[in-house]
Amino acid sequence: MAGKNFAAALRQYQWKVHVVASLPGLRKHLRRYGADVVVLRGPCPGLPDFVALLRHTVPGLAVVWQAWNVGGAERAAALDAGVDACASAGMEALEWDALLRSLYRRGHRGASAWRVLGPERTLAGPAGERLPLTVRERAFFVRLFDAPGHCLHRERFFPNVASDPRAGARRVDVVVSRLRTKARRFNIELPVLAVRGWGYILLPYGVATSPRADAP
């Protein structure tokens, strides 16, 4: 929860900053707009569960915690809980800018700039792309976002749909085929690569897509 002075200092370094006053408000904002980094300032009860909740809301999200009057044990516990970095109480804007840029680079190295907006059930792209999704299409992308950089086997997308794994594999192929047709109507290049004989992988932003590829 970034204070107004803190947000103003970051904006001077060309960061787009949104200020929220509560943990529920933060989750609501993330579901609607997403984020690259979240800075939690001050006490945060139930930190491990809350960090896990944030990462479920926005896969690949970086989390920084800044707290006052805490010692090494508390900071170590926060890092063990999944926080990416702990900031000292008096850290200046120049150092904040360097830290946030470092986390941004780390998060986008091999990561996808696409995200699923939950309430609208929409695939959102880095250049303002918006692709409406069905329930099953959303489930397909959620599985991909939960495994960044990994090629998922066809049978792993909808394991409970049918008792026959081959039927599940065929079903995900149909989902992807319909997604590609829909994306073409919206003039969107779908960030999904099909790996022959295996499954699908979510591509990082800026990597050219192709309908099919040979397995490595």
TrEMBL record:
InterPro entries named in the record: OmpR/PhoB-type_DNA-bd, Sig_transdc_resp-reg_C-effctor, WH-like_DNA-bd_sf
GO molecular function: DNA binding
Segments forming domain OmpR/PhoB-type: 128-202
Name by which UniProt lists this protein: Transcriptional regulator 4
Source species: Achromobacter arsenitoxydans SY8
Top-level taxon: Bacteria
Listed transmembrane segments: none
Coiled coil feature spans: none
Keywords: DNA-binding
GO-annotated biological processes: phosphorelay signal transduction system; regulation of DNA-templated transcription
